[in-house]
Amino acid sequence: MAPETTAMTDTILKVEHLSMKFGGLMAINDFSFEAKRGEITALIGPNGAGKTTVFNCITGFYKPTMGMITLHRRGGRTLLLERLKDFEINKKAGVARTFQNIRLFSGLTVLENLLVAQHNALMRASGYTILGLLGAPAYKRAVADSIEKARYWLEKADLIDRADDPAGDLSYGAQRRLEIARAMCTGPELLCLDEPAAGLNPKESLTLNALLRSIRDEGTSLLLIEHDMSVVMEISDHVVVLEYGQKISDGTPEHVKTDPKVIAAYLGVEDDEVEEIEEQLDGGAV
Amino acid sequence: MRKMGRTIQEMRPHRRTASRGKQMDYFVQQLINGLTLGSIYGLIAIGYTMVYGIIGMINFAHGDIFMLGGFAALIVFLVLTSLFAGIPVALLLLVMILVGMLVTGLWNWTIERIAYRPLRGSFRLAPLITAIGMSITLSNFIQVTQGPRNKPIPQLVTDVYHFGDITIALKQIVIVVLTAVLLAAFWYIVNKTPLGRAQRATEQDRKMAALLGVDVDRTISVTFIMGAALAAVAGAMYLMYYGVSSFTDGFTPGVKAFTAAVLGGIGSLPGAVIGGLLIGLIESLWSAYFSIEYKDVATFAILAIVLIFKPTGLLGRPEVEKV
Amino acid sequence: MSPVTEKGETSLMAKAIREGIFAAIISFFMFLLFVGVETYQDINNALVWRMRWGLLFIFVAIAAIGRFLTVAFIKPHLDARKLSKAKSGILEISTQKSFFHRHFLKIALVFLLVYPFLMMLIVGKQGSLKYVDNFGIQILIYVMLAWGLNIVVGLAGLLDLGYVAFYAVGAYSYALLSSYLGLSFWILLPLSGIFAALWGIMLGFPVLRLRGDYLAIVTLAFGEIIRLVLINWTEVTKGTFGISGIAKASVFGIWSFDVGAPNNFAKVFGLASSSVYYKVFLFYVILALCLLTAYVTIRLRRMPIGRAWEALREDEIACRSLGINTVTTKLTAFATGAMFGGFAGSFFAARQGFVSPESFVFLESAVILAIVVLGGMGSLTGIAIAAVVMVGGTELLRDMSFLKIIFGPDFTPELYRMLLFGLAMVIVMLFKPRGFVGAREPTAFLKERKAVSGSFTKEGHG
After folding, report:
1. What is the pLDDT of residue B18?
2. Which of A186, A206, A232 is the last residue of a domain?
3. Which residue of B5, B32, B152, C192 has the fewest C-beta atoms within 10 A of its own C-beta?
4. Residues of B in contact with C440 (CB under 8 A)
5. CA distance C342 to C166
6. CA-to-CA distance for A207 and C261, rounded, in angstroms?
7. A53 CB within 8 Å of a chain B CB
8. Residue A89, domain member (yes or no)
9. Same domain, yes or no, for A110 and A76?
């Protein structure tokens, strides 16, 4: 990746006053946050807090009831994500995602999964199939490049030995890594991960952390939803906490860890007890 | 296309010359005809929708089950009228319907056991193909055993009532009333009995229902029998209404009823009935005011248009994409 | 295999007998009305009936004995075989293939190339007509149609129940444009394909966002709409009478097959006049069209668009998250499939010399779909085998006049053709729910090409 002239702390994603209503239920209520370029931003919160809904709004699977989602691309272009169609979020805005319950093309091989991810680039190279059918050399080069790109990500995700096996045949942890590799093959600027560590054993979890850090270090920003606090605290640069569709905390992992509101939300205490905890924490700190 | 428009103009009855009252009578008459036809479609559509709801398959053979019901009624009619010459029409009809329900119920039960159950839980298209195979088998079975010719019977119910310019045949009343009674009974079974609860549970989540002690196989079998029984009533009504049966009878009403089920929202019981009535009405009104030739085109076109705006039918649960 | 205990044997027998009796009772009531009673019109044209106890008895006996044999012998045998297979650990797809297996495609191609001449050698010029036309051409038309539908159903996973509509569009395009404008087959063949593809896009555009069975019924409805319009738009299509006297295809305009033409094929080469030449020529035309379909399908599968089709079948939501425009992807699948249907249609019109709405009923769509599914969705070889078995099998039943010796002169095997076809569909599906060839060939590989077992592939929602 070419080194950026702009500071690494500029904003890549800005969510403002996001609200999402399902029938009478206000799943997200006036939620705003920012994700910085080159950082890993984590979105956490108790079950049912609305994290996946926020995700689905950002990645175009839901149309938000209200609010603005702005994405700043590297060239300085800004896009309003809520105005894009679902597939354009990836194609035009460079936002890729994974799913909480893994969605691989299980009947295609691992390699084919990664080639499908490069669909738009390959389509262009194949002259929308016509040049490709005629066997144009430019297309052949593009195909070779796409296989090299796939090989690069297979090696990074430690899947190179399984390249020719059906994706459905992989273990759970390997499927998670493949889904991330597949998303990266679309060449995104922002990678959104929906509970990437769910169901992984501690060893697999460590490998995943390393993979995510290396993705960040190569210049892709990450936004992740996570339940596993050890993962969040270990790798995130910035944490946003959501409860009942509203933001209750926002800051560095250290800040959020000690925020009494967050502790209350996770332990499930009454509002008036929050102060008590606050006092206790202050006492502990002294 | 322009040419078609002109024929439509020509086909219109003399609406300008007719008085307002006459127009109204004509319209009501068409409504009654449509309601009658729609009742029959609705009865068949329930079978499609129930089976779809419970095991998620399009039972393509259901139209032919309806045809079997019609043939059973026809044969019972012939046997009874020749053995007991003076049999009252009401009793005759009752026996025709009951025997038809039993026989077609038995057929559908057997078909489910042989052709669908072994494929349950496998490939989604496999039971669809066996259902199409069964549909071909059933209609050709009747062709082989009963001959390819149309089978006419004398009019069973001939009474006609006049209300001004509107004519209502007794057979139309019988069809509509019988349909209403059956629907009420059916609604009661599905909503108020343990059997209905088992059906609804199986529909929601087959595995969970089995874990909670619902005999899923039996519930599915009963669903097929119930669907067939309603189709058999429709078959007998169809025979009574038109006075003729043929081995090809399964296809067109079958497809229309299927269309009705989808139009109403497949899986929804009230949807099936409403869809059936709507299709009956579209058909009779289109035939009356536009062109009889294009009545089926109109039906299918309206289905396509409705689905474009409401992709899961009128009363279907909107499909939420789980991401 | 472990020996079955004496007790197990007798209890199995008892169970089989019980099941047999049960089947007898059930089948008695099932067949009592439909087989036991014969309805027919007497001299006064009134409907009367008589009993057929003998026939009823045969039906019941077949059901009872069949059930008895299934429970007592066939099922234990199948279970034992499955068990021994599982024990020995041999996978379904064996790596050791016979010579015939490995070179199946080449052998099949060579056989097809020499088939018309082989038939002429064996049964003579006139005798070969039946084998070239009824078997060769007929089967190849279905192979082509099924390969075309395979793109929609097998690759993209879209359930299309109205495929025959595009076949009809192709056939009528040729019939009408050649009758009214006098255009030749070689101009109209590509045109028909383009028309069919345009219809595919027109019909597909509004409905392709529908999912699963809703899409199925709308495609069925479109198939019916096209057929009904063909029936009723009599000014143009001549309705149910159909269009007859459609021009024959020529050998690229050089030699004609019209008897009166000066460049008549037989005349030019000084051969005795016969309709065999035209049929042989048509055989090679449809063979070439089939090979074109196969070639394009194989090439497209390895292109980004083909991969996107298969990905769409596997998971539509994931496709959208990867930036794939699912609407245009579905439309291209629909249009490509329709195009091959159109080609086949114009060929059909040229071969028959006559088209009528009769040829484009729902049953045809169902048969084509059945061939695709029976063959194993996505597998060209499997689909070709299914077409040979199903279409060839029913064609064989057309001339089984020797059966009359067994069943008496009243027996018309023709009547049982579709009955057996329907039963065969059910039986094949029960034994091979994933079709003849369930495995999938990957389109790209790093180290080695390994077939993907059918248990991983999905069948699409739409």
Report:
1. 54
2. A186
3. B5
4. none
5. 5
6. 78
7. no
8. yes
9. no
Cα of C295 vs its chain's centroid, Å = 19
Span C239-271, pLDDT tens digits = 788 888 787 777 777 777 776 777 777 667 767
Chain C residue numbers touching B71 (CB-CB < 8 A): 33-34
Positive or negative, the Cα torsion across A241, A246, A250, A256?
Answer: negative
**Which long-range contacts does C4-11 make (Cβ < 8 Å, 24+ apart)?**
none
pLDDT at C281: 85
Q: Which domain does A208 fall in, by range?
A: 10-94+188-254
Residue of A95, A108, A193 to mutate, interface with C, max C Cβ within 10 Å? A108
- AA letter at A9: T
Q: Which of C219, A79, C30 is nearest to B100 (CA)?
A: C30
Please give, one letter per residue, the 3-state secondary structure of B237-272: HHHHHHCEECHHHHHHHHHHHHHHHHHHCCCCHHHH
Shortest Cα–Cα distance, B136 to chain C (Å) = 5
C367, C425, C455, C456: which to substitute to probe chain B, counting the most B Cβ within 10 Å?
A: C425
- The answer to whether residue A161 scores a pLDDT higher than 70 is yes
Helix (H, G, I), strand (E, B) or coil at C183: coil
Mean pLDDT of A167-176: 87
Amino acid at A98: T
Whether residues A180 and A202 fall in one domain: no
Given a contact cutoff of 8 angstroms between Cβ atoms, the answer to whether C170 and C341 are in contact is yes
Helix (H, G, I), strand (E, B) or coil at C256: strand
Taking CA–CA distances from C234, the nearest residue in chain B reads: B4
Contact residues for B266 (Cβ-Cβ < 8 A; gap 6+): B48, B49, B52, B53, B313, B316, C213, C214
Selected for mutation to probe chain B from C203, C426, C436, C459 (highest B CB count within 10 Å) is: C426
> A98: buried, middle or exposed (CB in 10 Å: 19+, 13-18, 0-12)?
buried
Using a CB-CB cut-off of 8 Å, the residues of chain A touching C312 are: none
Distance from the C9 Cα atom to the nearest Cα atom in chain B, whole angstroms = 25
Identify the chains in contact with C, defined as 3+ C-beta pairs within 8 A: A, B
Picking from A82-86, A130-134, A247-251, B318-322, which range would have the lowest pLDDT averaged per residue? Answer: B318-322
Note whether residue A78 is domain-resident: yes
Residue C310 and residue A91: Cβ atoms within 8 Å?
no
Q: Same domain for A65 and A114?
A: no
* B99: containing domain: 38-309
ipTM of the assembly?
Answer: 0.85
User: How many domains does chain A fold into?
Assistant: 2
The pLDDT of residue B104 is 95
Whether B321 is in a domain gets the answer no
Q: Which residue of B has its CA nearest to A55?
A: B323
Residue finishing a domain among A135, A154, A186? A186
Residues of chain A with Cβ-Cβ distance to C452 below 8 Å are 107-109, 166
User: For position A71, which CATH number holds?
Assistant: 3.40.50.300
Q: What pairs with residue B163 in β-bridges?
A: B166
The CATH number of the domain holding residue B59 is 1.10.3470
Does residue B103 form part of some domain?
Answer: yes
A95-97 vs A78-80, strand pairing mode: unpaired
Asked if C206's CB is within 8 angstroms of B308's CB, the reply is yes
Q: Clarify whether residues A118 and A173 are in a common domain.
A: yes
Helix then strand then coil, % of chain A, to nearest 5 = 45, 25, 35
What type of residue is B220? I
Total number of domains in chain B: 1
In-domain check, residue A277:
no
How far does Cα A179 stand from its chain's mean position?
A: 11
- pLDDT value at residue A8: 45
| Residue A156 forms part of a structural domain | yes
Distances in Å between the alpha carbon of A79 and those of A13, A221, C28, C174, C307?
10, 16, 72, 50, 29
* Contact yes or no for B129 and C419 at CB 8 A: no
Could you tell me the CA-to-CA distances from B29 to B10, C10, C124 in Å, in that order?
A: 21, 68, 66
B9 is a domain residue: no
